[in-house]
Amino acid sequence: MTSDGRSPILTLRNIHKSYGPIEVLHGIDMDIHAGEVVALLGENGAGKSTLSNIISGTVLPSAGTMTWQGASYAPANPREAIDAGVGMIHQELLLLPHLSIAENIFVGRYPMKHGRVDRREMESRAHRGLERLGLDISPRQYVEGLSTASQQLIEIAKALTLNAKLLILDEPTAALGGEETKLLFKQIERLKSEGVGIVYISHRLEEIKQIADRIVVMRDGHKVQEFDTADLPVRTIVEAMVGRSMEQMFPPLAVPDEETVLEVSNFSSPSGRFTDVNFSVRKGEIFGIAGLIGAGRTELVRAIAGADPIRSGSVKLNGRDITPNSPRDAIRNGIVLVPEDRKLQGVILDHSIAENIAYSNFESVARAGWIRSHRVREFADENIRKFGVKGRGRQKASEMSGGNQQKVVIAKWLARNPRVVLLDEPTRGIDVGARSSIYEIIHALAADGVAVIVVSSDLEEVLGVSNRILVMAAGRQTGILDRDEANDVSVMELATA
Amino acid sequence: MTVTADHDVGKSRLLEMVSIRGATGPLIGLLLLCVFLSIATDSFLSFRNFLNILDQITVLGIMAVGMTFVILIGGIDLSVGSVLALSMMVLGYLNVEAGMPMAIAIGGALLASAVAGAVSGLLITAFRIPAFIATLAMMSIARGVANMITNGSQIIGFPAWFNMGAIIRYGGFLTMTVAVMLIVFTVATLYLRYREGGRSLYAIGGNPEVARLAGIDVQRTTVLVYVASAVLSGLGGILLAARLDAVQPSSGVAYELDAIAAVVIGGTSLSGGTGGVVGTIVGVLIIGVLRNGLNLIGVSPFLQAVIIGSVIVLAVAVETIKRRS
């Protein structure tokens, strides 16, 4: 690491981070030198964001020490980190669209003269910052309407006017096209030559090979491997990222019927979040959809469930075209969605479990449109008991654990005997115990002849539950793998293709 | 276990019918207010005064029911006062100026109101204009149209029986107008509690995305809610016309604020999803009793406004504190 005799500008020693009883970082050591690009890699949830948030002062470590340019460093908030010269560029850009570029760069610390904002000074300093990045735009221009790449560079310019010596870039190319990425890389090379250290987080392994000098791989909160060069086969990097551990959590899979239930063809979203997706799911099959964040998986299943509009394509159910226009449409045809964000899309937290279940089962709890309130409670109690939910119908959804809330969301749909069930990240934020019971529910559904689609960012999960796996990358379908050819490496290769 | 459960169900169904769900605080406030006024004045505690109060709250009561629907789905309707005026003017024009039968005039007035509500609803759903802005615009438009009908002047000359409906107390207590209000209260309460459509309003107010994903047609329901609010305001206008035996386009100014106040005092949350008509009825009664009682004591109308404002703050503060603890 220090083989060339230079001393690092930032060192991390034994950094731990816990949220309550759960430790998410287990003693990370890392060095970053001036003028180098260190790629920080790992699957979703490996701890990359937590680590970069600790460096940039957004999150406080539970234990461990950091040294910055030879002195001890413990930023209590992002402000202190910025003042020390550590800048972080978030994946979601945090610019104010209705202000000019110069105002965005200096917001909160406007240069003042005679008690007023010195616009001329502000604009000329902003201009110098933009020039340093080779950007030829007027600092007076409004941010609204600028390309994502330009906005990204403005964020970087902002960090540079703060004399940042270390930049953390979190997925900077997630929203960039090929040309824009090239432009960004040119600027990164330039910053490197000026001695700025860069931590580069990305899922795109081909890019990493181009831009990074070293690679640090994380998995489950551990630093698992460090490579002193980025000139490695992608397979080697992927193997380090996914590791090799398969728990016996998943029940054995049954063989699905031959009969095709759901057929999705030439499916494209209006915004291009997914394009030209084609697949079919058989009766009793569990069909996994894998990919990295932003690959378009959630958008795809939402569109199949009628929740979002599509530009083209069709959904066929048992050979009949039923391309839904609304969730209501899809539900009527027996296609139901257990959405990604339980708290915002799955349940109404302030309402009781019984009410939450009733909202999607009016025909079961009402007679001629009249709700029978005792029936609402009975129906809820019956259904949540079936799925082993601890609690009673009259409890508010907010009083239940995440696992039980998720079971309620599933229960409210299964009471309708659906033909296709779409589950988006069914076990996100759910503890291990509840997780395996959700897998059991999934398998029971398949055994009943339901076509089940499971979207998951958890590779182990998607490999463990699926008969076949559709892999997506940046909105494209990059392949469908059969169970016997699917493994962590083959999926990751397609997901980063 | 099962025996007690069944017994519970039977009992709880009865209790549920009359339960006031979350409006206990306002109800206690109303009772305290009545006790205080009974002691402070000689004339408050009488059957006659009670009937007076009912007469005085008819228009507000009916409008507040519509407002409850709107606020339950997380919306707001600022146009109700203007729609009331529009309905009155259409009624007067059709019946007096155009000489049509009252039944047709009433139908026309309600239809005009429904159109105003549908326009607001479509602006909100199809064009995604915030409810505040859409109904603010409708408040101005409906008022303008109401004025255009007679170029700002009033219309008199309704048939004699029309005004009698607001005066004659059938069976010694029930005027036609109060009867209409009681019917609206009953139907709205039953609808919100026991109809699919009513329960859907709670779902939409709780979280429109969850409701949509649950298969509820959120857009259509939203439009219908604004139509309902406008039609109820129009109905309020017809009752007001009966009471005044005249219509004028300046009626109903600032009524939307009274209606919102009644709903909020009654415990319906402005963010939607919780509350109900029973609470609103209590809220309407609090405002009605307060006005009536303060008049009896001889408090000036200016001070009355201050007191009513304070009551709104008090009611909401109590609810908020209760929820937090």
Automatic annotation (TrEMBL), chain A:
Its main location: membrane. The keyword Transport applies. InterPro entries: AAA+_ATPase, ABC_carbohydrate_import_ATPase, ABC_transporter-like_ATP-bd, ABC_transporter-like_CS, P-loop_NTPase. It is found in: Cell membrane. Residues 10-245, 259-497 form the ABC transporter domain. It comes from the Bacteria. Keywords: ATP-binding, Cell membrane, Membrane, Nucleotide-binding, Repeat, Sugar transport, Translocase, Transport. The keyword Hydrolase does not apply. GO terms for molecular function: ATP binding; ATP hydrolysis activity. GO terms for cellular component: plasma membrane. Gene3D superfamilies: P-loop containing nucleotide triphosphate hydrolases. Signal peptide: none annotated. SMART domains: AAA. It is a peripheral membrane protein. Belongs to the ABC transporter superfamily. This is Ribose transport system ATP-binding protein.
UniProtKB/TrEMBL annotation, chain B:
The chain crosses the membrane at residues 20-41, 53-73, 103-123, 129-146, 167-192, 223-242, 263-290, 302-321. The keyword Membrane applies. It is found in: Cell membrane. Pfam families: BPD_transp_2 (PF02653). One of its GO terms (molecular function) is transmembrane transporter activity. Keywords: Cell inner membrane, Cell membrane, Membrane, Transmembrane, Transmembrane helix, Transport. Its main location: membrane. It is a multi-pass membrane protein. The keyword Secreted does not apply. GO terms for cellular component: plasma membrane. This is Ribose transport system permease protein. It comes from Roseibium marinum.
